[in-house]
């Protein structure tokens, strides 16, 4: 159905309808029969107006069209006198507002009833409607059991379903919905020359035979209708448990201590630095230095589940080796040294290290072209980025996601921002069947309680963003580890919809109260993973909700602990958490990602703790982005200075990375539509239930839909 501005176009006038049905080209020897038919049509038109001259409603229009079609097929004389021609097409133009949508809905509903009553299937109704902004029918509307572009061709799949139907309709028809591909972006569109097809006409017998063949191929039997409405029951299947998905399996904890794993990664970097020095001495290669600023390693194996120091160093080491291999094959590429500096536990010394790097970079011949690192969004890492920017040193962040890390134009990152993650997570919670009712059926969340730490840059920001995007006024619980008073000044009352808790026990009790009052409440965990483990301990044993189902959606800070099986012994917990890469072996991975996973498995084991958590891949890509800017500066100016590297970054870089397509165009600080994956935590591992974004450069790797049969649209970056 097209769009028009005139609301009166929502109904058919009977005279127009009958004239349209009768207005076929007459054959000379049948004009008398046609005149009789037009007279009958006029009588039907007068009866349809009922004296008031009002337009024909949806049901009457449907019966008129169907009845005329049935009479046209009743006898050989009438059928030959006025054969069904391809010109017999009616367009119901509806306004684009809510009234137009309601009118179209009523027409389709009554048309189905009329088709059942008249037992006529000579007319096929095709309703075409634009998608809603979210990419699916409006709230409250039924959804069709059709296909999407992810299932092989939309209309082609619908036609296959129709071909299997047979028999006359015994009830209102079961319509199908076929989602058409979205418009191709202008930059990717093809310019097509106009085509003038040859004109030809068929005789009535040939046209009738051809029309019959086409209709039979599409429908195969009467009583099947292709319309834009659905009467099927809503889907209540739970998201997760799809055996076809590749699962991120349980890793094996290394027998080596965390400190040994950390030093082994640093040793790989030192060995590669020595290789660079030999190359420069022997072959006069061009070499520069990239500084890495990371946190200290965990003290024990348990702490490894919450610490990113080792995987980040490993990703940088793998990237350095790969980039120097390329420089050995291409004299126009730069050899790279890596100067890794330890900023202490939780980056406590990050500002101090940043000032040291700024001083070292000012020395003549330092060779420092930029900094990579900062795996966490903290106030101290934010301050370090600000110091480096003031010194005009380019920085590429690894896994820090907070929008507030963007303090100036010298900072870029390869991980998606909190804004993007929160948009994807909120859409997932509102639309996905994640709330288990205990019977094996699930439904979307109707309420949310957000747990965040107001003194943590990452936690406070992503918790606030999720609450804004989820809607329905989520309740926020603020908790700061150690009971340090939350984010409000002493004596200041909390805002509406916000409560401050001083202990994990109080927090667990408050969450229990919320999910008891509304069982369809999802807990959005914006705080850190270490506090989540403590919360689960109290919730399971020390609250009135012992044994009650708890659905939690968390950010990527929970990922390493979840993949390591930290939460596996809690059958009452339904946990979803984000990650920035697909599991190794997933069919959507790019060739670059497959090679990276193979290299990582070769050096560190195929069951390593961090193989699937994305931290090593993001560190690898941060080095790739910095190196690409340096190589461009070298090729264009033969001068690899920091200012030229910054110009290369400012001009934009598009490159396939291990974590996805790095589309950092001019003026951007983060790759466009960077992949976000949501994993469902299960006994056998974590399985992807949503993955959105640009995993590869080619269109097939840009995932734009999620959910059963891809019925929901992924949030897109501007």
How would the blueprint of this fold be written?
Layout: H1 14-22, H2 31-49, H3 58-72, H4 76-81, H5 98-118, H6 155-163, H7 204-219, H8 258-283, E1 287-294, H9 301-304, H10 309-329, E2 335-342, H11 350-362, E3 368-373, H12 379-390, E4 395-397, E5 411-413, H13 418-431, E6 435-436, E7 442-443, E8 447-452, H14 457-470, E9 475-479, E10 498-501, H15 504-517, E11 521-525, H16 529-541, E12 550-554, H17 559-563, E13 573-579, H18 591-604, H19 615-637, H20 642-650, E14 653-656, E15 661-664, E16 676-682, E17 685-694, E18 702-703, E19 705-706, E20 712-713
Parallel strand pairs: 1-2, 1-3, 3-4, 4-5, 8-9, 8-11, 9-10, 11-12, 12-13
Antiparallel strand pairs: 6-7, 13-16, 14-15, 16-17, 17-18, 19-20
Helix pairs in contact: 1-2, 1-3, 3-5, 6-7, 8-10, 10-19, 11-12, 13-14, 15-16, 19-20
Short description:
The chain is an alpha/beta fold and 718 residues long. Helix content is 39%, strand content 13%.
Structural summary, described in words:
Residues 1-37, 44-87, 132-153, 163-172, 184-200, 213-232 and 486-490 have low confidence and may be disordered. Helix content is 39%, strand content 13%. Strand 8 (447-452), helix 14 (457-470) and strand 9 (475-479) form a beta-alpha-beta unit. It is globular. It has helices spanning 14-22, 31-49, 58-72, 76-81, 98-118, 155-163, 204-219, 258-283, 301-304, 309-329, 350-362, 379-390, 418-431, 457-470, 504-517, 529-541, 559-563, 591-604, 615-637, 642-650; strands at 287-294, 335-342, 368-373, 395-397, 411-413, 435-436, 442-443, 447-452, 475-479, 498-501, 521-525, 550-554, 573-579, 653-656, 661-664, 676-682, 685-694, 702-703, 705-706, 712-713. It has 718 residues and is an alpha/beta fold. Helix 1 (14-22) packs parallel to helix 3 (58-72) and helix 11 (350-362) runs parallel beside helix 12 (379-390). The strands form five sheets. Strands 10-9-8-11-12-13-16-17-18 form a nine-stranded mixed beta sheet, sandwiched between helices. Strands 2-1-3-4-5 form a five-stranded parallel beta sheet, sandwiched between helices. The protein has a two-stranded antiparallel sheet with strand order 6-7.
């Amino acid at each position: 159905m097209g769009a028009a501005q005139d609301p009166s176009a929502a109904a058919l006038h009977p005279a127009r309808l009958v004239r349209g049905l009768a207005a076929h080209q007459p054959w000379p020897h049948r004009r008398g029969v046609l005149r009789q038919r037009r007279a009958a049509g006029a009588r039907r038109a007068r009866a349809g107006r009922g004296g008031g001259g009002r337009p024909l409603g949806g049901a009457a229009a449907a019966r008129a069209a169907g009845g005329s079609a049935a009479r046209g097929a009743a006898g050989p004389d009438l059928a030959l006198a006025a054969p069904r021609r391809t010109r017999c097409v009616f367009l119901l133009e509806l306004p684009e507002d809510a009234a137009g949508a309601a009118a179209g809905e009523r027409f389709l509903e009554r048309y189905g009833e009329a088709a059942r009553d008249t037992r006529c299937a000579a007319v096929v109704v095709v309703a075409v409607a634009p998608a809603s902004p979210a990419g699916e029918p409006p709230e409250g509307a039924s959804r069709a059991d059709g296909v999407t572009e992810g299932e092989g061709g939309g209309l082609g799949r619908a036609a296959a379903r129709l071909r299997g139907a047979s028999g006359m309709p015994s009830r209102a028809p079961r319509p199908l919905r076929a989602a058409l591909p979205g418009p191709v972006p202008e930059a990717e569109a093809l310019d097509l020359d106009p085509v003038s097809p040859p004109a030809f006409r068929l005789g009535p017998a040939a046209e009738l035979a051809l029309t019959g063949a086409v209709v039979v191929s599409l429908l195969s039997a009467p009583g099947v209708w292709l319309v834009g409405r659905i009467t099927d029951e809503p889907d209540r299947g739970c998201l997760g448990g799809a055996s076809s998905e590749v699962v991120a399996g349980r890793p094996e904890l290394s027998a080596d201590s965390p400190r040994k794993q950390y030093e082994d990664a640093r040793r790989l970097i030192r060995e590669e630095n020595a290789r660079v020095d030999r190359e420069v001495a022997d072959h006069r290669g061009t070499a520069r230095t990239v500084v890495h600023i990371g946190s200290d390693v965990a003290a024990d194996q348990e702490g490894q589940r919450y610490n990113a120091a080792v995987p980040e160093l490993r990703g940088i080491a793998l990237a350095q080796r790969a980039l120097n291999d390329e420089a050995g094959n291409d004299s126009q590429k730069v050899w790279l040294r890596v100067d890794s500096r330890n900023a202490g536990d939780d980056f406590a010394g990050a500002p101090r290290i940043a000032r040291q790097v700024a001083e070292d970079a000012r020395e003549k011949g330092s060779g420092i072209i930029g900094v990579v690192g900062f795996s966490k969004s903290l106030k101290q890492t934010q301050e370090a980025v600000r110091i480096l920017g003031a010194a005009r040193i380019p920085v590429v962040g690894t896994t820090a996601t907070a929008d507030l890390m963007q303090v100036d134009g010298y900072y870029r990152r390869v991980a998606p921002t909190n804004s993007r993650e929160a948009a994807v997570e909120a859409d997932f919670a509102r639309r996905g069947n994640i709330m288990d009712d205990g019977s094996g059926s699930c439904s979307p969340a109707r309420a949310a309680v957000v747990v965040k730490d107001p003194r943590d840059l990452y936690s406070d920001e992503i918790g606030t963003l999720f609450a804004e995007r989820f809607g329905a006024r989520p309740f926020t619980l603020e908790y700061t580890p150690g009971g340090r008073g939350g984010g409000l000044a002493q004596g200041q009352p909390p805002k509406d919809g916000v409560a401050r808790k001083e202990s994990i026990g109080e927090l667990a009790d408050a969450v229990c109260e919320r999910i008891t009052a509304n069982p369809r409440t999802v807990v959005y965990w914006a705080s850190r993973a270490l506090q989540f483990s403590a919360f689960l301990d109290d919730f399971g044993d020390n609250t009135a909700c012992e044994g009650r189902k708890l659905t939690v959606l968390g950010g990527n800070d929970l990922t390493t602990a979840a993949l390591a099986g930290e939460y596996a012994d809690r059958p009452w917990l339904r946990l979803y958490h984000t990650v920035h890469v697909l599991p190794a072996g997933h069919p959507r991975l790019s060739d670059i990602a497959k090679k990276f996973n193979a290299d990582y498995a070769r050096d560190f084991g195929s069951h390593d703790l961090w193989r699937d958590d994305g931290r090593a891949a993001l560190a690898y890509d941060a080095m790739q982005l910095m190196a690409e800017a340096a190589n461009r500066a070298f090729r264009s100016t033969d001068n690899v200075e920091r200012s030229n590297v910054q110009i290369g970054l400012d001009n934009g870089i598009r490159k396939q990375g291990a974590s996805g397509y790095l589309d950092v165009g001019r003026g951007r600080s983060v790759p466009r539509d960077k992949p976000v994956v949501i994993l469902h935590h299960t006994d056998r591992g974590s399985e992807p239930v949503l993955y959105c974004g640009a995993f590869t450069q080619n269109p097939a790797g840009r995932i734009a839909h999620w959910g059963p049969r891809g019925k929901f649209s992924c949030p897109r970056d501007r």
